[in-house]
Amino acid sequence: MTIQSKQPSDIRSAVPPVERPSARAHVIRTDAEAIAVAEKLAAEFARDASRRDRERLWPTGELDAFSQSGLWSINVPKAYGGPELSYVTLSKVITVISAADPSLGQIPQNHLGVVAAIRTVSDEAQKKLLFAEVLSGTRFGNAFSEFGAKRAADFETKFVDAGDHVVVNGQKFYSSGALLAHLVPIVALDDEGRAWYAIADRGAPGLTVIDDWSSFGQKTTLSGTVLLDNVKVPKTHLVPGYKGYDRPTADGAIFQIIQAAVDLGIAKAAIDETVDFVRTKSRAWIDSGVDHAWQDPYTIQAIGDLRLRANAAEAVLEKAGLAVDRAVADPDEKTVAEAQIAVAESKILTTEIAINATNKLFELAGTRSTLAEHNLDRHWRNARTHTLHDPVRWKYAILGNYYLNDVNPPLHAWS
């Protein structure tokens, strides 16, 4: 399905926009259907995942299949024609896709987060308009973070009022999904310093996306630099994102739980690769007294430990999904803090098992597992890259302050 590759010679080139889908996306109706669709897609995505990583091939066809499947609209409210499925299910979907290809699992993260934000902060007219876009198969990218800021939430991108539209200027980086998005939500500040999502058309004049993502992991998240030179955004597409954080809402926890699900998927894939390699390719150690690597008692113990910790992380992720569902249904200081704490616990465990499992893969599988032909280092590279999204050392601080001092987590997209 993959048809497009970017080579070093054009790494700094501006990427033209993609056409909107010619057919409406499918609308999923049940949790069971969502999981079944995710599993079917994952089987297809896994086939060329290693090659896409090795050659940095854009998942063009895979992404179209993914967004047309209905999985990108599963948190659209029922009142607007969407499935409004549980965040437990949404997390499972992202985990399943990420186990096949974590770049594909990461791409819809900001799309789904923006859908959640629209539910929280938009008026009725804007909800009807933008949810209809999502249900039709429109993909949101993102232009949130800025490379040179002191802190992640320090933004220099701003917009000015120009009547029926605003004009946006600035520069963004870490823009996952922007290369092949149809609409690009831009975090931009108004003249009062409040952050909005200015959702621009990907082909808007002055909006340039440059293919310069060079990380050693998560290579095909379709990220890059976004340049904004007097980009016009209609006020119908100007979403007051700041309202999701000036009072308790589940918006931050939703952005975070998707990150945790990506990490769990990476961990599960690494453990599966370890088991397969040990059973089919690894040799028994000279002093083990056994004929096969899979009979080594230390290897057996280590695999058991990895599965246990992955299962624990998965259970806590499900608990977090339930807490997010409660906070979405009834947002107040208590339910939102409980959701944030449950998601922070999940983020810690999924980060740690992703790093541990991708390290243990080589220790247990042995030297031949490092051969380039297997490309197993992609699991470690993906885990190490994605888990840097926000530091788990601060998650421990949030938990300790909550349990010891009754201090609720801060309200922002990283908490």
From TrEMBL:
<keyword id="KW-0560">Oxidoreductase</keyword>
<feature type="domain" description="Acyl-CoA dehydrogenase C-terminal">
    <location>
        <begin position="257"/>
        <end position="390"/>
    </location>
</feature>
<feature type="compositionally biased region" description="Polar residues">
    <location>
        <begin position="1"/>
        <end position="10"/>
    </location>
</feature>
<dbReference type="InterPro" id="IPR009100">
    <property type="entry name" value="AcylCoA_DH/oxidase_NM_dom_sf"/>
</dbReference>
<feature type="domain" description="Acyl-CoA dehydrogenase/oxidase N-terminal">
    <location>
        <begin position="37"/>
        <end position="137"/>
    </location>
</feature>
<dbReference type="Pfam" id="PF08028">
    <property type="entry name" value="Acyl-CoA_dh_2"/>
</dbReference>
<protein>
    <submittedName>
        <fullName>Acyl-CoA dehydrogenase</fullName>
    </submittedName>
</protein>
<dbReference type="InterPro" id="IPR013107">
    <property type="entry name" value="Acyl-CoA_DH_C"/>
</dbReference>
<dbReference type="GO" id="GO:0008470">
    <property type="term" value="F:3-methylbutanoyl-CoA dehydrogenase activity"/>
</dbReference>
<dbReference type="InterPro" id="IPR013786">
    <property type="entry name" value="AcylCoA_DH/ox_N"/>
</dbReference>
<dbReference type="InterPro" id="IPR023922">
    <property type="entry name" value="S04_starv_induced_SfnB"/>
</dbReference>
<dbReference type="Pfam" id="PF02771">
    <property type="entry name" value="Acyl-CoA_dh_N"/>
</dbReference>
<dbReference type="InterPro" id="IPR036250">
    <property type="entry name" value="AcylCo_DH-like_C"/>
</dbReference>
<dbReference type="InterPro" id="IPR037069">
    <property type="entry name" value="AcylCoA_DH/ox_N_sf"/>
</dbReference>
<dbReference type="GO" id="GO:0006552">
    <property type="term" value="P:L-leucine catabolic process"/>
</dbReference>
<dbReference type="InterPro" id="IPR046373">
    <property type="entry name" value="Acyl-CoA_Oxase/DH_mid-dom_sf"/>
</dbReference>
<dbReference type="GO" id="GO:0050660">
    <property type="term" value="F:flavin adenine dinucleotide binding"/>
</dbReference>
<feature type="region of interest" description="Disordered">
    <location>
        <begin position="1"/>
        <end position="22"/>
    </location>
</feature>
